[in-house]
Amino acid sequence: MSMAGNLRKVTSLGGVDGLRKVARLARRRPRVDLSHPARSPLGSSVVNCVTYREGVRASARDDLVDAVRRVRKSGDGFVWLGLHEPTDQEFAGIAELFDLHPLAVEDAVEAHQRPKVERYGETLFAVFKTVCYVEHDELTATSEVVNTGEIMVFVGEDFVITVRHGRHGSLGPLREELESDPEQLAKGPAAVLHAVADHVVDEYLNVTDAVHLDIDHVETEVFAEHGARTDPGRIYQLKRELLELKRAVVPLGRPLEELATRPARVVPPEIQAYFRDVSDHLLRAKEQIASFDELLNSILQAHLAQVTVAQNEDMRKITAWAAIVAVPTMVCGMYGMNFDHMPELHWRYGYGMVIGVISVACLALYRGFRRNGWL
């Protein structure tokens, strides 16, 4: 039976006791920590569940309930439970075990939340928007440049629950990086919260650097010799994708400031200093996005100005040729009126004189327009 099927039995098996039975069934199979964007090969939303004591992964393979009770009994260490897009049924037993607030549980399951930090009793609930850069061979008017997801983090005195939504932003590499630094991990669940925030903000910087390259490419094309022929849809698409990135980055400023300045039982003062560093990195990302937005506006205005100049040049050429063609049209029109008394009609050299006058007038107009840059 799959892990998803086991977790769906939690409510029918009776809350925590049911969750204990499910966890014991899951213990027979190897834990899988996802470092790829797909869901767990076990068919469950559970990515991993590990107990840490003094910053070191505990060797005991207890089920979730036993691990939590062991940690709470000893007063040492914490449990880190990782989930990926859990359903209401899968999350029900976990919410009961950790006494999570129903509003926070609803946000964690439904997703599509703004970045925020909320306190529910002794539990801290944080929402982070994740972003990733979508590789593309050529930027078009329909290219996807930025893809977004979400990471929700529940932080208590002896547990951390991370809930990931989206097909990117795996925390597997982050877990390995933290485990390689036991001194930092020994600072408790707040250290995991900081690591997640730092990881998310670092991805913001990576994405802004990649978007910068796309903007440079478009800017080069716009100011090239035939820049007026550039598709403006590409510029608008970049602005739309930049807006998506902005929606993920900008609202995170206040939650990080709150974590860095507002006292919280689950976030000790020594960890707050780390959040101030993350806030500085976020400020850099926000400034880059603001500058990109202004730059794209300038590029778009320059492109529109180039289009206007090109249209004016075309109109001047059309006007110049129309003026040249007007000379023979006027002369021929005058002699086409068929008056009886027109001396040139019966003059032997009249035809040659008219052709000469037309040619000289047209040549003079052509040279004048060329000298003034109209042709």
SSE layout and pairing:
Layout: H1 3-7, H2 10-13, H3 15-27, E1 46-53, E2 56-57, H4 64-74, E3 78-84, H5 88-98, H6 102-110, E4 116-120, E5 123-133, E6 146-155, E7 159-165, H7 172-179, H8 182-185, H9 189-222, H10 232-249, H11 253-261, H12 269-335, H13 350-371
Parallel strand pairs: 3-7
Antiparallel strand pairs: 1-2, 1-3, 4-5, 5-6, 6-7
Helix pairs in contact: 3-5, 9-10, 9-12, 10-12, 11-12, 12-13
Account of the protein in words:
The termini are far apart. Helix 3 (15-27) packs across helix 5 (88-98) and helix 10 packs antiparallel against helix 12. This protein is of the alpha+beta class and 375 residues long. The chain is rod-shaped, with a radius of gyration of 35 Å. Helices cover 57% and strands 13% of the residues. It has helices spanning 3-7, 10-13, 15-27, 64-74, 88-98, 102-110, 172-179, 182-185, 189-222, 232-249, 253-261, 269-335, 350-371, and strands at residues 46-53, 56-57, 78-84, 116-120, 123-133, 146-155, 159-165.
Alpha-carbon Rg, integer: 35 Å
The biggest beta sheet reads:
7 strands, mixed
Question: What level of helicity do the residues show?
Answer: 55-70%
Mean pLDDT: 80
Distance between the termini: 80 Å
Number of helices: 13
Arrangement of strands in the largest sheet: 2-1-3-7-6-5-4
What is the strand tally? 7
- Beta content: 5-15%
Element order, helices and strands?
HHHEEHEHHEEEEHHHHHHH
Extract low-pLDDT stretches: 1-43
Note the overall shape: rod-shaped
| Broad structural category | alpha+beta
